[in-house]
Structures are given as C-alpha cells and as structure tokens.
C-alpha cells in the first residue's frame, strides 16, 4: 500500500451504526420496547407447563392415568399453556432426560423443587 492509495475493507457493524446514528429519544424508545418484548417473552415462557406421568403400571396400561389429566386441567384453569408429556419409567435418568429435553429443546423452564423434596402424588 502506498501513501495516498485508498484501501477499502468491509465493515461488519451488526446493526450498531443505526444505534450510533439514532437520536437520544429514538434510542430510549427502542430500548424501552426491547425491555417490554423481553418481559412479554418471560411471561409467556413462565406460563407454559409440561406434565409427565411415571410408573410402569401407567406405561403398560394396567391403571388409568388420572394424575396427568387432572394436573393439566388445573394448570389450564390457571391460564397455563399445557403440554401433556409422554409417560416415563420410574427412572431418574429418564426423568432427567425428559426434563432436560423439555427445557432445552421445547422451551420449558422449571421452577419447581427437586423431585426428592416434592410431595408424592396419590394414586
């Protein structure tokens, strides 16, 4: 490169030049709307639930699963968007895998206590 020679290079701004050029009021309005959108997303995620049943008797069809529909109905009445998950074996690894999949791949979160401290459902 010689003195006075122009050298052009692409510049990746990831949309930041628009932020730099925005006036103060416009920038504040965009940030406020972004915060509102984030809060709405959090509310939507927090109002979703997935319900699993466990037990070999349920999986084999020896007993009717009344817990999952009962819990799902009550959650729906409380304005949750409910998914009835698959029946799971009484196996900690299988339950953990289903919960991990629900959280990571299906967008469900969990704020419930660990299963060991949760009361057992009556059958």
> In CATH's first tier, which class of the domain at 48-109 applies?
Alpha Beta
The largest β sheet comes out as: 2 strands, parallel
Class derived from helix and strand content: alpha+beta
> In angstroms, what separates the terminal alpha carbons?
80 Å
Assigned CATH architecture of the domain at 48-109: 3-Layer(aba) Sandwich
Mean pLDDT: 79
| Strand arrangement in the largest pleated sheet | 1-2
Estimate the helix proportion, in percent.
Answer: 40-55%
H/I helix tally: 5
Low-confidence stretches: 111-123
- How do the helices and strands follow one another from N- to C-terminus? HHEHHEH
CATH superfamily of the domain at 48-109: MoaB/Mog-like domain
Total number of β-strand segments?
A: 2
Q: In CATH terms, what is the fold-level topology of the domain at 48-109?
A: Molybdenum Cofactor Biosythetic Enzyme, Chain A
Specify Rg, calculated over alpha carbons: 25 Å
């Amino acid at each position: 490169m010689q003195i006075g020679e122009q050298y052009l290079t692409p510049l990746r701004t990831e949309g930041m030049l628009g932020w730099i050029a925005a006036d103060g009021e416009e920038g504040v309005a965009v940030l406020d709307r972004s915060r509102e959108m984030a809060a709405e997303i959090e509310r939507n995620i927090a109002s979703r639930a997935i319900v699993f049943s466990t037990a070999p008797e349920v999986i084999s069809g020896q007993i009717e699963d009344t817990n999952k529909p009962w819990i799902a109905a009550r959650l729906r009445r409380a304005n949750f968007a409910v998914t009835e998950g698959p029946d799971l074996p009484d196996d900690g690894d299988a339950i953990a895998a289903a919960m991990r999949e629900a959280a990571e791949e299906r967008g469900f979160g969990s704020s419930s206590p660990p299963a060991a401290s949760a009361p057992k459902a009556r059958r």
